[in-house]
Amino acid sequence: MMNFLTTEASSQNSIVVLLIQLLPIILIMVVFYFLLIRPQKKREKEVQQMRSNLEIGDEIVTSGGIIGRVVSLREDNIVIETGSDRSKLRIARWAVAQNNTKHDEVAE
Fold first, then answer.
1. pLDDT tens, 26-76?
2. Whole-angstrom distance between the N-terminal and C-terminal Cα of the chain?
3. Counting Cβ atoms within 10 Å, is residue 60 exposed (0-12), middle (13-18) or buried (19+)?
4. Which residues of 24-47 are buried (b: 16+ CB within 10 A; e: fewer)?
5. Which of 17, 28, 74, 75 is surrounded by the fewest CB atoms within 10 Å?
């Protein structure tokens, strides 16, 4: 009877030791989530919303550094007009890095 109690106590003790050893790893994962992963997902969501809210006439900057004004919008590409000679470029919507046109946001 005494032998059974000691093995049960030692197995519970080993579970506690295992949890104590895993606690720092779990804490590091939680810190990574709140400091790195969550803010990155928030930024990606904002960029995706900016790209979906583009309008004709907006001044944009592409990821390659080309500055132009939106002339035409399609599902997955955009036609922009650049320079004083009004040359037109067709770019992918994912290539838009920044919208320089300020829009009035409607508060709901």
1. 999 999 999 999 999 999 999 999 999 999 999 999 999 999 999 999 989
2. 70
3. buried
4. eeeeeeeeeeeeeeeeeeeeeeee
5. 75
